[in-house]
Structure formats: C-alpha cells, structure tokens
Design brief:
The chain is mainly alpha-helical and 852 residues long. It is built from 40 helices and eleven strands. Keywords: Coiled coil, Nucleus, Transport.
C-alpha cells in the first residue's frame, strides 16, 4: 500500500504472521525451555521510489501449483478450494513461513509505480539461516537465531538446509553450508541435551541464607528430548501432514452420478506430488542414516559409551551412571559440567529415574524410530508411483470386493503401519507381476523386480523376487507343451528358486502349476519344507510345543500336507473336475493314462516316505486308505507304517511285535477282551497284510487271530462266522508257512502255535455246524406252524420240533453263536447236548480222541 504523503517517495508495507518464538523462561542456549508462540504480526516498511500504483503476487508455475493443490486439496485450509491451482498457494502462504517453507518458494511481489516495475522477494526464516551459514557469521548470531525461533524450529530449519529439502528453485545449497547446518543440528550448545522435565524448576528452589521456602509441587519425571529431536519431529510431520490421515485412493465418477460401481478408482495424489514428496523424505532419511553411520552427534556420544547395538535397540543393559567416554565430544562437557551449588542440591534430591547417558540413549532410539518411519513412508510413496504408472483401476480389478473396499478406504498411515496396508500392497504387487509375466505381459520379472527391490525393499524383498521369477518360469514352461525337455528344465529352475523361500510362497497356487506340469517332486517337497519351517525345532513331533500355539501351528502344517493329498486325489480322480475348474489360470492338465497315473502315484509316495516327518506320514497313510490305495500303501509305505497301523487299528492295545521264534506261542496268542471298532478293523487287516508282505508270518498269524476273535461293543458291527473262519484259516496258513521257512533255514520253531490255531479252526467249524443245525430247527418249526398239514412220522424228534418254546430257544442260541467264538466246552454243554445234536457230539468225541 502507499501512504498519503505528498512526497515523491512511497512505502511498501508488508504485514505477515510473526514466526519468532517467545520463550516462557529465561535460559541458556544449551538448556533452552520449550517456546510458546503468541499470535502476532510483524509489519515491514520498504521505501519505494516514485508513487506506487499497484502490487501483485508472482504465483508459482502451473505444474508446481497443481502439485501443491494435489497435496493439500483435502487439508482443512483447502477444503472446497479447487481452481485455479495457482491461487491455492496464497492460502498456504497465509499459514505462515514455518509450516510451508519446505514446500513453497519464497514469496515474490511485483510492484508497479511511476518509476517502473520492481520485484520484491521476501526471505523466509530458513533463508536467513542459510545466509548466516554462508558467511563468516559469529556464533552469537547463530545463538540469537536459535533463541528467537526456538531450538526445535531452528533445528528443523537446519535439517532442511542439511538435507536440502527446500523448494526446487531454492535448493542450490553448497556443501559447506549444508555441513555447517548439520553441525548446528548436532551442537548441544544450540539444540540442548535431553533431560527430565521439571528438573530446572527443582534446581531453582534454593533460598537465600536464612530464608525459608515452602518448596514447589514436584512434577512427574518425564524425559524431555533436545531441540534436535523436536526439529526432526517438526520436519517429518510437515512432510507427512498433507497425506498421513487421508485416503490414498478415490473413486472418480462421471458427472451426475454417485454410484460407486459407476466410478473408476484412481490415486488421490498426482504423480508429480508423490515424486517430490518421496524425494524430500528420502533425502531426509538419507541424511539421518549418514549421520548415524558416521556416529555424529548423539549417535557418536551413545556409541562411545559402549555397545551401540544394545543402546540403540535395547538388546543389552542400559548404560549406568558409571559409563563414560574418553572422546572429545561436545556432549561430554554438556553432561558433566555442573555448578557446585547444583551438585550440592542434587545430592539432597532423590536419585533421578534416568541418568544423562540413559536419556541420550532414549533420544537416539526415538530418532532411529523416526528415521525408519521416514524410510517406510518413502518406500510407500515409491510403490504408489509405480502402481499408478500401470493403471491403478486395472490392477484394482484383480482384487476381491472386500479388498477393493479396503483399498478405497486405506489411508497413507495404514499403508505404512498396518497389516491391512501390507496385505493390500502385496495384492497390488501380485497384480502388477501378473501384468508382466502373463500372456500379454509387457516386460520381464527382472525389470520390474529391480525397481521394487531398489525403491521399496520393505514391501518387496528378495523372497518375493525369487517367487515371481519362479512363476515366470512356470508360465514359460506351460507354453512348452511340444518341448518336454525345455519344459522340465524350466520347472526345475522354478523349483530350485522356491526351495530357498518355501515359507513365503503361496504354495496352494504354485503347486497346482507344478501338478499340471507333472513335476511332482515340487508338489511334495515344497509343502513339506514349508511345514518344516513352521516347526523348525520339531517341537510338535517331540511333544515340546507350547499348548497355546499347538493348534495354530498344527493347522498350518495340515494345510501344507493337504496340498500333497489333493495331488493324490486328483490322480485318483476324486474331485478331479472340481479342481480343474478351480484352476483355469494355471492351465488345465492333460488327461493321464492309467500307466502314467500309477507311475505318478508311485513317485509321490516314494518322495513322501523319504521325508522324515511322522505327522505327515500319518496324514499320507490315512489318505491312501481313504482313496483305496491299500496295495500302494503296503508296497511303498515307510518303516513307520507298522506302528501307524498298530496305533490306529487297536488303541489301548499292547504293541504287536514280530516274533522270530515262538517258544511260548500259546501265551503270546491270548485273546484280548478289549472291543475293536469296525473302523479299526481295516487298519488291523492292513497290518496283517503288511506282515505277510514283509515275511513276518507269526506276527501276521497273530493279527489274523485277533481279527477272528475280536469283540464288538455293537452287535451290528459283529463279523460273520464265515469272516471269522477266513481270518483263522489265514492265521493257520501263515503259521504253517512260518514252520516251513524255519525248516528250510534250520531254525525250528515250536509247533504248538500251529496246533493251537488248527484247534481253534476246528472248534469254529463245529460252531458253524451247530449254528446251521439250530437255524434249520427254527426254520422247520416256522414251516410246520404256518402249514395246515400234520407232520409226518419220519422224524424221531417231532415232539421237540413242535414245541414253539424250544424253537425260540434254538433261535436265540443261534444268534448267540453268531456274536463271538465259543470254546469247545461251551459248544458241547450249552448248545449240542441241550438240543440233542448227537451227531455233532460224536464229532466232538472223535476229534478229541484223534487229537489225543
């Protein structure tokens, strides 16, 4: 504005928000208190020759203005403010210099007066500080700057200069200026040292000699970090402020509609805005990392106290009051120098919760956490840029409805810090990789993986790179249908890559690809390697796992086992059509002829048995029995097959052991009274067949005897006498075979085993004969009672048969005989004699005489 004086000179008055701090307490530079900011304005007068006619702001270029509008469009001061983009900067300038000087250029004003045009450039606080570092400025001037703006704000400006975070036109900062700014940021005389809040007030409670003091309220002891930490927080928060709590994606809809399905998902930030912001965050993180690696500032002081790793990451003991360093660090004098009166007062006070060294270590840890947050944020911005370059809407279409909704609602904070953010990033990267390795891909995995590994390693690590390389090999192998040798080479390459990262691969999908390529070595070994990685110490097998984690780990291992089981089911034809339709993306496998199917099943079984995982073997054996592959199970089963069949077939039963010589066969072949369920019978039958296949004849005979004499708790599960007869007959055959083999090897065995089994078989024949006779009696009575004719006199027992009560008793006894095996005494006394089966009795006597 121009004044109303009649002189030829005018004054340009610039009114702006005051940036200087007002200190609440007088203090030295090294221990400056936190500054409070009052709302005030400063007025500057600039004389202008001639009479001023008008003045106008020089707005940023359209590209820069669009970038700023993209960043701050959803911030409070910009809500509802869209166009023109250039005027949006005026609102940011109105917020003051301190929160915007990292992103906005210096304000320029063109003045038009009677003498011509004049451009006025307003320096920001950071420009003043840069000029101080650029010349031979006295330290007192630097201290005055820190005192005026506060240690935190001044340290933040030092970071902007040292890390070169200023606006592009103002970023031409010499290395000497940058180094001076870095040294000022680390100077404890300027930024102070971490301390306990309230310690200054406590130390000033001393009274003059002879005086009396009621004391002060003791404040709760809290760590108060230095201005360097506060400056880092200010700088980081201002960089992340326009994106941290806002969604990263929005739905762009056609005009006049509000339906979500009518819109297209796009990134809220422009590519230029993300690039500039990512560059600034990366520069700040790089600066902090370089100072840490060089052990500058507090990093060097804390590292000089001892093990830097334990101090930085709490892996060892905290440095105690006895810790010291012989290095000439400016921090030593700041910590050790103390006024004698203060020493006397400190001796009277109770010991503080933290020593100076501990406070320094705490601040270093806090700064390291901020550095890692900045690094992660920069990687997130890089990932967003890469995704936006490949059409976000197309990549988002590959997500399910739930993930699609989460993506639209995802904030930058969640992308950086939450599990949902990690999951969505992984899904988007997966969609991006499919774009490259699919049939219509426009590049290679190596090309895109290099960008991801360099730009966002926390979202895409080495294991992801190997996984997608393997997928690329499998895609190429699937297209080599006419070149089996090349197809096998590519499948082998993919398998070798995945063996290095089994725990991080999506095996349910990847193994289906191998299955379609008939590369069953990968189908078996990859899931088993992952299951082993889930329980690397074999705690489940040894029974030493924490019960709280047992179910979770066991469920994850079973999911790995099911991949192998599903391959067997597919080869067997169980659920084949369902699994084919569910995996069209990996290519439908060609039909398998019976000979090839048998070969592949054999290959899977041999590979599975070689793996030393007994829990997996149990799942394998159960699946083979379920699929009816008993012959394959007995032929290719492992050494633990017998113990599995024993435990599964007869719980709470003593272990069945193969006996090479039977010196007390009758004692070893005793009947066990524990009932055996029908579901367990199949395992015992397989165990008997296993012993036969292995040539363990006596053990096989024992199992057949157990099956023949098995007790059942449910009458519906009772085997027929014919089935029991088959078991006993097989037991006799195995016992005789054992005797023949013993004779040929000149190792005779006790013949009592064969005699015992043959005797049991003979008794069973009598039992079957008696049962048949009793059933015939019952049938005759029923026929006579239903017929009107009188019975003929050809049968000597017509009176007994005509008795309905006797017929009912015969029927009940026949039913009893079908339930279990009876002894010869029971058959003679309880069945043959009461029903006058004299022919059977004669057979009993004759057989007994022969045996004697």
């Amino acid at each position: 504005m121009s004044d109303s004086s009649a002189t030829a000179m005018s004054s340009l008055l610039a009114v702006q928000k005051g940036s200087a701090a007002q200190l609440s307490l007088p203090s030295t530079f090294g221990t400056a208190s936190r500054a409070s900011r009052a709302l005030r304005e400063t007025v500057s007068a600039l004389p202008v020759e001639g009479r001023m006619l008008c003045a106008s702001d020089v707005l940023p270029l359209p590209d820069a203005a669009y970038m700023l509008q993209s960043l701050y469009a959803d911030v409070e001061c910009f809500t509802g403010f869209r166009k023109p983009f250039e005027k949006a900067c005026i609102k940011l300038w109105a917020k003051g210099d301190l929160p915007t000087q990292h992103i906005l250029p210096r304000r320029r004003v063109v003045v038009f007066n009677t003498m011509g045009l004049m451009e006025v450039i307003f320096n920001r606080p950071v420009d003043i500080l840069r000029k101080l570092f650029d010349g031979n400025t006295l330290r007192s001037q630097i201290e005055e700057f820190f005192n005026r703006f506060g240690a935190g704000e001044a340290a933040a400006m030092c970071l902007m200069i040292a890390a070169k975070l200023l606006y592009a036109e103002d970023s031409l900062i010499s290395n000497s200026v940058s180094e001076k700014a870095a040294e000022a940021f680390e100077d404890p005389g300027l930024v102070g040292m971490p301390q306990i809040a309230g310690t200054t007030a406590l130390s000033n409670t001393r009274t003059q000699a002879g005086g009396f003091s009621m004391g002060q309220v003791v404040q709760e002891a809290e760590p108060l970090f230095s201005g360097a930490y506060e400056g880092l927080c200010l700088c980081s928060s201002r960089l992340l402020y326009p994106i941290w709590e806002f969604p990263i994606m929005v739905i762009r809809r056609p005009a006049g509609t509000n339906k979500c399905e009518d819109g297209v998902i796009v990134c809220r930030l422009s590519a230029g805005a993300m690039e500039i912001l990512e560059s600034k965050i990366h520069s700040l993180e790089t600066f902090l990392r370089s100072r840490r690696n060089k052990r500058r500032g507090l990093y060097g002081y804390v590292a000089g106290l001892g093990d830097s790793g334990s101090i930085l990451y709490k892996t060892g003991p905290i440095i105690g009051p006895g810790g010291h360093s012989n290095g000439r660090s400016p921090y030593n004098s700041q910590i050790q120098d103390m006024d004698p009166a203060d020493k006397s007062a400190s001796n009277k006070k109770p010991r503080l919760l933290y020593t100076s060294a501990e406070l320094a270590a705490m601040e270093v840890r806090a700064m390291e956490c901020l550095r890692r947050l900045l690094r992660r944020s920069g990687e997130a911005l890089f990932l967003l840029q890469l995704i936006c370059q490949h059409n976000v809407a197309r990549l988002a279409q590959t997500l399910g409805n739930d993930l699609h909704k989460k993506l639209v609602q995802l904030t930058f904070h969640q992308l950086v810090c939450s599990e949902d953010g990690d999951q969505l990033a992984m899904c988007l990267i997966s969609a991006l990789m499919e774009y490259y390795i699919g049939p219509e891909g426009r590049g290679t995995v190596e090309e895109i993986s290099t960008k991801l590994k360099e730009g966002c390693p926390s979202y895409f690590n080495e294991s992801d790179y190997k996984y997608y390389l393997a997928v690329e090999c499998l895609e190429r192998a699937a297209s080599m249908a006419n070149n089996p040798d090349e197809r096998d080479i590519l499948a082998r390459d993919a398998f070798n890559l995945l063996t290095k990262i089994p725990e991080s691969a999506d095996l349910s999908a990847i193994c289906k690809r191998f299955e379609n390529l008939r590369f069953y070595e990968a189908v078996v070994r990859l899931p088993l390697q992952k299951a082993q990685a889930l329980d690397s110490n074999a705690d489940i097998t040894n029974g030493q796992i924490d019960p709280r984690h047992h179910d979770t780990i066991m469920l994850q291992r079973e999911q790995c086992y099911e991949i192998v089981m599903n391959a067997l089911r597919t080869l067997k034809g169980v659920g084949h059509s369902r699994m084919q339709s569910a995996d069209k993306s990996s290519g439908v496998a060609t039909a398998v002829d019976p000979a090839s199917r048998t070969k592949y099943i054999k290959q899977i079984l041999q590979l599975s048995v070689q793996w030393p995982d007994t829990v997996f073997h149990e799942h394998l054996y159960k699946t083979l029995i379920e699929l009816g592959l008993e012959n394959e199970l007995l032929e290719y089963g492992g050494s633990d097959l017998a113990s599995f069949l024993q435990s599964a077939g007869r719980k709470h039963q003593e272990e069945v052991r193969a006996v090479s010589s039977v010196t007390s066969g009758a004692a070893k072949l005793h009947d066990l009274s524990a009932p055996i369920l029908t579901s367990q019978t199949k395992y015992l039958e397989l165990l008997a067949r296993y012993y036969v296949r292995k040539g363990e004849r006596i053990a096989a005979a024992r199992m057949f005897l157990i099956l023949a004499e098995r007790q059942c708790s449910n009458s519906e599960e009772v085997p027929t006498l014919d089935k029991r007869y088959e078991y006993l007959r097989d037991a006799v055959l195995q016992a005789k075979s054992a005797g023949i083999e013993a004779d040929s090897s000149r190792k005779p065995i006790d013949s009592s085993t064969v005699d015992l089994l043959e005797g049991k078989l003979t008794v069973l024949r009598f039992q079957m004969q008696i049962k048949q006779e009793l059933e015939l009696m019952t049938a005759r009575v029923e026929n006579i009672s239903s017929s009107s004719e009188s019975p003929s006199g050809l049968f000597p027992r017509d009176n007994i048969l005509a008795d309905a009560e006797a017929a009912k008793a015969a029927k009940d006894k026949a039913k009893e005989l079908s339930l279990n095996l009876k002894s010869i005494t029971q058959l003679y006394n309880d069945y043959a004699v009461p029903f006058e089966l004299w022919e059977v009795c004669l057979f009993f006597v004759h057989s007994f005489a022969v045996s004697q």
